[in-house]
Amino acid sequence: MVSIFLSAGNQAERQRSSDTNNEVVSLKGSDDKGDDAIEGPVREVLAQSGSAATLPCKTEDPGAGTITWVKRPDRRLLTVGTRTYSNDKRLSVIYSSTDWALQIRAVTLQDAGIYECQITSHPVQRNFVHLKITEAYSIIPGAPDLHVKQGSSLRLECQLMAAAESPVYVFWYRQGRMINYDEEPGVKVELTKNGSILMVNKTKPSHGGNYTCEPSNAKPAYVVVHVIEEEEKPAAMHGGDRRNLSPAILASNFLVSLLATVSWRIPSFTSLYPT
């Protein structure tokens, strides 16, 4: 999860916070009026679709008053204290002496927006959190088709894009069958921080087919692997290097060439004795 502090003010001046190294910008618009205006600090929280998002509500005085969470712009009441006033069972309040964080489990794109935390002190404190949702997806470099020679090594990498967290697992499928836990010689699957790597030491025709990588928190990716089989040919049919030819084959080739040359030079019988 990534947090960025945003500050509303009369100027749209960008600055860097010395203690958090987070960017500070202005979010207040000229059309904001009355209670609908977003005044004060606005924290931006980035969460990945399907994961849990935690929206902080810091307070310096634990006994300042009742803490409530509402969803803007319709000011829909979500929680009062630790009680939930929404039918959405994904919502809960994580309470500590200095924080009344709102947690939303299994977030979706519809959860994105501005959330307001109110502390009923005198005067009333209002904190704002801008929740952004990202949908992660995966790619396999070389897709959609990858060609590899038989006997060479194969390396497929599943890379997560637009992800806010590492995957718990990445499943690999060949022709629709999971191969992560197959004890196939020369085949290895390795989980990385941003995806997974599938390696095959010496490819065989059976290693060809449709591969799918399916991370726990991202859309899957696909690639079709084509294993190029090299045809076996007799040594005499491989042109260029004659050092690989046996002495018997060399002698035979020389005799054929000699007979062809002699027959070309000897005149025919009919040309010697015309009729």
Automatic annotation (TrEMBL):
Q: Which GO terms describe its cellular component?
A: neuron projection membrane
Query: CDD domains this protein is in?
Result: Ig
User: A Gene Ontology biological process annotation?
Assistant: synapse organization
Query: Which Pfam families would you find in this protein's record?
Result: Ig_3 (PF13927), V-set (PF07686)
Q: For bias kind Polar residues, which ranges apply?
A: 8-24
Q: Which InterPro entries match?
A: Ig-like_dom (IPR007110), Ig-like_dom_sf (IPR036179), Ig-like_fold (IPR013783), Ig_sub (IPR003599), Ig_sub2 (IPR003598), Ig_V-set (IPR013106), Zig-8 (IPR037448)
Q: Where is the Ig-like domain?
A: 35-134, 141-224
Extract the SMART domains matched here.
IG, IGc2, IGv
Annotated region Disordered: where? 1-37
Q: State what protein this is by name.
A: Neural cell adhesion molecule 2
